[in-house]
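FAQ: What does the model actually see?

It sees only this:
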Amino acid sequence: MRFSYIDLIGYMAAFGTTISFLPQAIKTIRTKDTSGISLYMYALFTIGTILWLTYGILSGSWPVTVANAVTTVFASVILVYKIRYK
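And it is asked to produce this:
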């Protein structure tokens, strides 16, 4: 497997967009406050990240796969809290 500057850009983009969910996930876990979060938006977003993860796996794109695997976990945690702590 060869690593290119395109992969580097992909990993940098993946890191930036994925890490942006960490503060919301931490805040939601600590406070259990999900009042400012839209259930429908997070449900659709989580489905979208699962589809992007599937695309990344099927296309062999590691930046897409890694980013969406992590983002799916964060989004799923927030979604579960939203459903559980209405």
